[in-house]
Amino acid sequence: MSFDVAAIREQFPILKREIDGNPLIYLDNAATTQKPQCVIDALVEYYTTCNSNVHRGAHRLADEATRHFEAARDIVKDFINAPKREEVIWTTGTTEGINIVANGLAALLSAGDEVIATGMEHHANLVTWQQACKASGATLKTVPVLESGELDLDAYQALLSAHTKFVAFPHVSNALGTVNPIKEMTAKAKQFGALVLVDGAQGAAHRKIDVQEIGCDFYAFSGHKIYGPMGIGALWGKESVLAEWPVWRTGGEMISTVTLQDATWNVLPYRFEAGTPNVGDAIAMGEAIRWLSALDREAVEAHEKALLDHATALAEQFEGLTIIGKARDKAGVLSFVMDHGHPADIGFLLDRQGIAVRTGDHCAQPLMARFNVPGTARVSFSIYNTLEEVDALFAALKKVRSMLA
Amino acid sequence: MSLPSTEDIVDDLSFFDDWEDKYKYIIDLGKSLPAFDEAWRTSERLVKGCQSNVWIQPGTEQDAQKGEVLTFAVDSDAIIVRGLLGVVLAAFDHKTPQDILDFNIDEYFAQLDLERHLSPTRGNGLRSIVGRIKNIAQAAA
């Protein structure tokens, strides 16, 4: 199979938009990706033909909706090579997936236990563990980030001990693009019997995921960062861990039997899916994954690498620009600051030229403090971006530089 | 230096038909604002935006004609926001509390075609600064 970026772009209607008379150049893909027509169609199709509540209706629409909804779960299972479909829990996104785990963890930890996260976390994969530790009396330790934007793996090794009960780290840093050695890090944690969660929010779109190969206990990701709708995501957890994990929200669907004074819990995955699920978005997320999986993933990865390599080369020659995060293995993200101009200025002046980037702390304030920057301008690439767009970005940055000098 | 009046700003900005010239003017306005004492960059003076921060230090002065007027020293870490603060101060600095309360900032920004900077979604702290200035004027009125 090969990769034709023009044919890909044709499938994303939003890319035809103009901003102030300029063609839209969308480089904020780490925040959310755009949606191909087939995903938009899947949403419309669901609400047009079979909208109904799942699992409980004695009618045709409910049967059809349930079938599509559960088929989407199978698509997610295959996408991450999960052993069992029951291990895939629908969430509202990565943040909720992490919260489900953190909520249970708070009940399982006690004083003297240790949790390890890293200095490059998105707040969603840090504040959650802070709260779990505060609630339980456990201690949170963090792996320092090296100047390169890579994790200090020696320090990580030194933090691990018999007290380590839980370890969390991102597959890919949202602010720097660093791809972490998640398999190796998981193996190290496993030597001490710790549970491991991988925050896959930024990993799922850029790398093939095989949870069995990684060896982790939990992997959480979002639909909207892999061409699916917002408000839907998945948490995968090992059946052996999840089956006994403390329940999170209680209500309908997640119960088995209920008396006026007590209740017993449903089996996986339903014990973590209280209330009416987000059926339409789950189905459309399944469609997004089906669409992505049908592409030549190696060619996609090569294309995204070419974009990042080209951007990095231009950035290195660009006077007055400093790249933040130069890890050897990076995916999708180029973060930088400029000598003149705050990231917010850069973002505004790029927007005025039709180029969408993200500026600010990227929900990673400790990481910004580590690099002693107020924030960065972050360019993040996706499947539909082109080398010409990268060139246009740097032409626009020249204008930004001259305006701010 | 003294700030241009709101009328001057409206006149000047209407002269440009190119966005670059318009924002260069705003950037220059930001650069021309009086320096803000580094020691004033404290949390009480801070209005935190999610993308950039703004600091404000209010004061009062006696004006021969107007009586007591409110003064504001302002700063932002983002230069365009600093320029926009200049646009705001043209309306509010050295004005009586009543003048400040009577001034329609939304209309003024719309006239300048800058209203999107006042939108709550921009996260630049500008809208909060306007709110804070109005509150100070309310308390002094």
CATH fold naming of the largest domain in chain A? Aspartate Aminotransferase, domain 2
Number of helices of chain A: 14
The proportion of residues in beta strands of chain A is 15-25%
* Overall pLDDT confidence of chain A: 96
- Total tally of structural domains of chain B: 1
Known CATH architecture of chain B: Alpha-Beta Complex
Q: Give the oligomeric state of the chains in this entry, treating copies of one chain as homo and distinct chains as hetero.
A: heterodimer
Q: How many domains of chain A, as an integer?
A: 2
Mean pLDDT of chain B: 89
Tell me the overall shape of chain B: globular
Question: Mind explaining what this structure looks like?
Answer:
The complex is a heterodimer of chains A (405) and B (141). Chain A is an alpha/beta fold. Chain A folds into 2 domains: 5-31 and 296-400, Aspartate Aminotransferase, domain 1, CATH 3.90.1150.10; 41-293, Type I PLP-dependent aspartate aminotransferase-like (Major domain) (Aspartate Aminotransferase, domain 2, 3-Layer(aba) Sandwich). Chain A is built from 14 helices and 17 strands. Chain A has a 7-stranded mixed sheet, with helices on both faces. The model of chain A has no long low-confidence stretch (mean pLDDT 96). With 141 residues, chain B is an alpha+beta fold. Chain B has one domain: Sufe protein. Chain: A (Alpha-Beta Complex), CATH 3.90.1010.10. In chain B, 47% of the residues lie in helices and 17% in strands. In chain B, helix 2 (19-32) packs across helix 3 (79-92). The radius of gyration of chain B is 14 Å and the shape is globular.
Could you give the topology of this structure?
The complex is a heterodimer of chains A (405) and B (141).
Chain A lengths: L4 H6 L7 E2 L2 E2 L1 E2 L10 H14 L9 H20 L8 E4 L2 H15 L5 E5 L8 H10 L2 E5 L9 H7 L4 E7 L11 H9 L4 E5 L11 H4 L3 E5 L10 E5 L1 H4 L12 E4 L4 E3 L13 H15 L3 H21 L3 E3 L9 E6 L4 H9 L3 E2 L1 E3 L4 H6 L5 E5 L6 H18 L1
Parallel strand pairs in A: 3-15, 5-6, 5-7, 7-8, 8-9
Antiparallel strand pairs in A: 1-2, 4-10, 9-10, 11-12, 13-14, 14-17, 16-17
Helix pairs in contact in A: 2-10, 3-10, 4-5, 11-14, 12-14
Chain B lengths: L5 H10 L3 H14 L13 E3 L4 E11 L3 E10 L2 H14 L4 H6 L2 H7 L14 H15 L1
Antiparallel strand pairs in B: 1-2, 2-3
Helix pairs in contact in B: 2-3
Protein name (chain B): Cysteine desulfuration protein SufE
Family (chain B): Belongs to the SufE family.
InterPro entries (chain B): Fe-S_metab-assoc_dom
